[in-house]
Amino acid sequence: MTVRDGGLRMARPGEFALEPVLERGPEPAQDQELTIDIRWEPAYVLVTVAGELDIATARGLYERLSAVTAAGVAVVADLDQVSFIDAAGLGALARVARYARTHGSSLHVVCARPRTRRLFRLTEVDHRLPLSGTRAEALQALMAGRDGPVAAAWPS
Q1: In this structure, is residue 90 part of a structural domain?
Q2: pLDDT at 31 (0 to 100)
Q3: For the chain, which terminus, N or C, has the lower number of CB atoms within 10 Å?
């Protein structure tokens, strides 16, 4: 898994400090299919995910998103560049949404891909977290304080 976080490293839950990222060795081969880009904004954190979100990469995404939400910061996860997602990926997102709520945060998911949206709907994960078609919709829901699914006219 490739993680880009603008030169900052998140502190452990319970701590609130950001330090320069230390050079690390190569990431494990099974996680190289997923890229996670973390960008800190004034009112939220934007996490852009690209690649395959599956059983091999879901744990890494869960850990990164949980670390951000543990600080009580709202997170917008943009999945528009995710080419594949399976039950492990959906489960990780649902667990992060639950974890975020217990830490006074929220997870808002952006996804315009019809097949991926259909998976969210079929598995009812869209009932557990806000799902928006665009970043603008997700930010509007975030600023309005809505933690439930975002009502939008999306085709089935």
Answers
A1: yes
A2: 46
A3: C
